[in-house]
Amino acid sequence: MQRVSPLNCSQERRSQLLGQKLIGTPFVISATYNSLAVLGCNNSVWVGASETTGLSGCKTFCKENSTDTSCNGVNCCHATIPPGLQQVQMTYQTVRSVNNSRFCGFAFLTDQYNGLLNDLLSPFEQEFVNATMFLEWELDHPELSPNGYCRNHSRRDVQSSFYDPISSFTVCSCKRVFEGNPYLPNGCQDIKCNNPAYMCRGSRVQIMFISIGSGLGGLILLLGLWMSIKAIRRRVKAIRKRKFFKRNGGLLLQQQLSSSNDNSLEKTKLFSSNELAQASDQYNENRVLGRGGQGTVYKGMLTDGRIVAIKKSKRLDEGDLEVFINEVVIVSQINHRNVVKLLGCCLETEVPMLVYEFIPNGTLHQHIHDPNEEFPLSWDMRVRITTEIAGVLAYLHSATSTPIYHRDIKSTNILLDEKYNAKISDFGTSRSIAIDQTHLTTRVLGTFGYLDPEYFRSSQFTDKSDVYSFGVVMVELLTGEKAVTSMRAETGSSLAMHFLDSMEENNLFDILDAKVLKEGRREEIEAIAELARRCLHLNGKRRPTMREVAVELEGIRLKREGSSFQQTYNDSEFHSIEVDEGTYDFTSISESTLYVLNRCSTST
């Protein structure tokens, strides 16, 4: 706080001490926060360290009734002061002729001249007694705190690390996170020690243990989180597998297994979804072997190196589950070299899958209607394939503990292995039938062109219905024509009807395949054609059984090989005949069949 003295009007230059002397004290007048303020008019005022050194000042002009409080020259002016002053000598002079005794205003140092002027309507209405003023101080050579730092301030850009009232002055402060008096040896204290959010710097071991503990805790937390997520994923995956297993007929399969006395069902392997996905290269389109009404078949390789065929079913409705499970149960019960072997199944995926042995040479349909020029079907191969198919069907109808009807015999369901041996596949629509039953009543299933007309009319499937479908395959092998063509479909005819009409008109050799005409013997062709005609009889009761068909075809093969049929099948020495792993009792063979056998043997 400083006392304010009035200015007397004078055209002569006058000087006086402004404020109080600070010489001998550590204080200086702050040039940063203080300014020279002059109230009044027609006065010129300048200040300095002495009367002879004027360093700064300002001039005022009079304007009555002015309300301007900006202090920019009208009734008021202000100016900066030099830094580092311990006393201020003021020199002033009135610029117009006035009475020397007249009051002309005030001059003083202050930090708030604007605030003072805002309270006045006129600088002549009130006399000032006191005004605030900022002082600064500094030690000559302070013992600074080690946690503090100092900055030099200079208006002349002269840097100095010690006090110089003209050139610069030094200001010290505590470093970050320290507080206190920076001019004392230990004046800056670490505020982290008093703050629970911080830890004192001196406790390095404590900090180290806390850091290690925090790291281990975080690691354990992450490990626990990872294990929890993994466990949740396993649980979700297991729930999905159980859901798919139930939806894909797993419970029905379990029921079949529990009610069956066949150990082969228990040996059926359940493959995992990952195993089959890896085997088929994620079901790559390049691995597709074929597509059908029930699904897509992929070629795959298991981890043990076995090549397999993976049958990926289409999305099944609830009514189709029985068809899928039925195929598993039926094929698992069959152990025959001319039946494609079922290796296992997978029920834990969205759609169920079956895994079969891989048959490399495609379908019989491909070889008949799109022949391989390098290895075409010869007459001998056709006779052998026909005999093998008849043998396995006879086995299914007669030699198993419960007769099995395939119900979809056609050339696309007959595969050829590496030695071109026939293997029957696709047992999805097959059915087992009790021995005392004569037929199976179901909704009509099968493929047009191979379907038994009698079954189509009555919905009663018998063993003779398989015989009819086999007869169509025989005609395909004889003629090289497809069971159904667009031309015949328009007329409502089929290959079977065309064949029967040709036989009736004695035009058999007009419809035969060129390969058959070239390589086949006339009597063999006629015998097989006659057997096919009997298989295609519209009255199922007049068709031969598959056992009879198998025996007749075997007789034709034996005759071709120059063997004595009579010596091979001597009633006094043999009471049964083995056809493709099935044993057939001759006591049940019809008289018509024995007649054919005797005729074959006598013509040898």
Automatic annotation (TrEMBL):
Membrane spanning stretches: 207-232
Residues of the Protein kinase domain: 283-556
GO BP terms: cell surface receptor signaling pathway
SMART domains membership: S_TKc (SM00220)
A GO molecular function held by the record: ATP binding
Coiled coil listed as a keyword: no
Gene Ontology CC terms: plasma membrane
PROSITE patterns linked: PROTEIN_KINASE_DOM (PS50011), PROTEIN_KINASE_ST (PS00108)
Main localisation: membrane
Keywords: ATP-binding, Disulfide bond, Glycoprotein, Kinase, Membrane, Nucleotide-binding, Serine/threonine-protein kinase, Signal, Transferase, Transmembrane, Transmembrane helix
Coiled coil location: none
InterPro entries assigned: Kinase-like_dom_sf, Prot_kinase_dom, Ser/Thr_kinase_AS, WAK, WAK-like
Lipid bilayer topology: Single-pass type I membrane protein
Annotated localization: Membrane
Reaction equations catalysed: L-threonyl-[protein] + ATP = O-phospho-L-threonyl-[protein] + ADP + H(+); L-seryl-[protein] + ATP = O-phospho-L-seryl-[protein] + ADP + H(+)
Pfam assignment, any one: Pkinase
Protein name: Protein kinase domain-containing protein
